[in-house]
Amino acid sequence: MPAMTLNPPDLRPDRARTLLPEAPLRPGQPRIGMVSLGCPKALVDSERILTRLRAEGYAISPDYEGADAVIVNTCGFLDSAKAESLEAIGEAIAANGKVIVTGCLGAEPDYITGAHPSVLAVTGPQQYEQVLDAVHASVPPQPDPFVDLLPASGVRLTPRHYAYLKISEGCNHACKFCIIPDMRGKLVSRPAHAVVREAERLAEAGVRELLVISQDTSAYGLDLRHAEERGHRAHITDLARDLGSLGMWIRLHYVYPYPHVRQLIPLMAEGLVLPYLDIPFQHAHPDTLRRMARPAAAVRTLDEIAAWRGICPDLTLRSTFIVGYPGETEAEFQTLLDWLDEAQLDRVGCFQYEDVKGARANLLPDHVAPEVKQDRWDRFMAKAQAISAGKLAARVGRRETVMVDSVDEAGATCRTKADAPEVDGNLFIDEGFEALNAGDMVEVTVDEAGEYDLWGRL
Residue limits of the Radical SAM core domain (predicted)? Predict the structure, then answer.
């Protein structure tokens, strides 16, 4: 039977690798499989579901054949992602037969059951109790409290040395191309003391890098009025400082370029937080941004970038963009190319715009022809690739601290402070690597650069 897989990595740039933990199986122990699609926020949801199941005595199956039922945690952000989710559900049904669907696409149950009427249940995102109810109905638990021991950090689907830390759910923005607020609701921040306690438990379990995620990390705590509780204030700057005190790499994702983001940069210059910002700029032309209804559309982003780099020269900037948005003219696209030339971003991803059911952008006039979108995507990525190659070439000869992600017979695959797992490049060591292990942090000298990756020696 086929192994359970994720969506293809070229569908979404924020793909998270799934590593299902294995444990000895006791007689009669029910086994549940998990297919986790979509972004790291969905991956954290999968980890929470599996943690609850393990606490109730279920084992986790790494393949379809050994599972008594399979949970498919779906992505529903783009129509192409919906299609991949339906394909994954169909694969699970064909291979196993007993399938429970959850996640963002679960907000459209008729869409799922119309394609796959045999699914056992459909639940929406964050509906953990309903998922457990569906599992109980299909595969009753048989817990053994003397055997079914659960690690304090819970079940994780990432390698042991890094973990995603979700600090909030939902989003208050109303971007016209996005339906995330409709699926996941308004911003709901976790109390800061709870976030810090989870980070402490992860550190105790051996995690060396935390990737902080949410829909809008900059807005963290806004719904709580930045309340302080148990010595921790619910504000992104305070939270970053608290997390930075734990001695791990702290990497911030999905940070909107509000003015108060500048307060984070000194923490990066001090070394408390990695000098890395993942900011979804999406476009550069003001008219395009207004049609998108983007927050902070009026912010002078080039000025902000210059100010950030003035404080922290080693800052790495990652972003994603949309080309071919309805109404985008050639002049607007050229503005984006010129902006990219000036901004010199280190890491760049790009989508071709596509309609999403329920999104307000679908109703905008002047949709761009597919061949024009493809041409603009090609031109944009060519420029981004050239910028990346030039920036990496400038790092040859530098000494850098890297995190080892994996080691095989060919060498060690590592990441620098400028690289997030799965979405950025790697640094490869192909000599003298035999004593290295995943999770090690070592010093290397960069001796070769490509368009997206580096090579180095210990």
Answer: 157-391
